[in-house]
Write a structure and sequence with these properties.
Blueprint (H helix, E strand, L loop, with lengths): L6 E6 L9 E9 L2 E13 L1 H20 L10 H12 L4 H8 L8 H22 L7 H17 L5 H28 L3 H33 L1
Length: 224
């Protein structure tokens, strides 16, 4: 089991003790391997356990933030001391972390998610009218549309691989649709189809900008 003292607790997606039940997901980043986060989930804990978990997590964060000493991780007093520090802490670090999740610097996943979804809708609407002009089989086009929607659904500010993949896909689709649009504009044939492809190229051009900024945000947080 990985020693929790050796990881950075970066995100707590949900902590709710109002009903007496704690459901939380701790998204922790190994300080030596930033690109491979580890998710730890705890569900349906009893109220007493939930409160203890909050104290323990807050204590571990506090000791890491302020470089406070703790007993050796193998010592039976290790978790007990961390829980005590969490209970005595005047500032509620957990709540501050929760509030900060909406203000993640350099994260534009919501914008990219929306643009991918819009592009998928445009492609889905245009497919029945322009399928004869496609350079790939219809089944491939359907899979691409489905892939865009799925990617839009999994975009997450804590998953570097997803951010990197969305950047690559944005570049590839921009080049594809822009090249297709220009070919039809130059030939003067099917101007409506050319406009459709140009619209999609513009959408993916914008997603390149925002997805690259998101990747830069990952690298910035890693270096800091």
């Amino acid at each position: 089991m990985q020693d929790i003292s050796s990881v950075l607790i970066e995100n707590i997606s949900h902590v709710d003790v109002s009903t007496g039940i704690l459901t939380c997901t701790l998204h922790i980043i190994d300080s030596s391997n930033y690109r491979n986060p580890i998710d730890i989930q705890a569900h349906n804990l009893r109220h007493t356990d939930a409160l203890r978990a909050r104290k323990l997590i807050q204590g571990l964060i506090t000791t890491r933030k302020h470089n406070l000493p703790l007993p050796n991780p193998g010592s039976p007093d290790y978790l007990k001391e961390a829980e005590k520090i969490g209970e005595e802490g005047g500032e509620n670090i957990l709540d501050r972390i929760l509030e900060s999740q909406e203000k993640i610097p350099h994260y534009y996943g919501d914008v990219t998610r929306l643009l991918f979804f819009i592009a998928g809708i445009i492609m889905l609407i245009g497919l029945p009218f322009f399928y004869a002009l496609l350079v790939v089989p219809v089944s491939v086009s359907i899979l691409v549309i489905l892939g865009l929607v799925l990617l839009a659904g999994v975009i997450n500010p804590r998953h570097f691989p997803v951010a990197a993949v969305e950047s690559f896909i944005s570049v590839a689709l921009f080049l594809f649709f822009e090249n297709t649009a220009m070919n039809y504009f130059i030939s003067g044939e099917n101007i409506i189809y050319a406009i459709l492809n140009q619209t999609l190229a513009i959408i993916f051009f914008i997603t390149i900008y925002y997805s690259i900024k998101t990747v830069r945000g990952f690298l910035h947080r890693k270096n800091n």
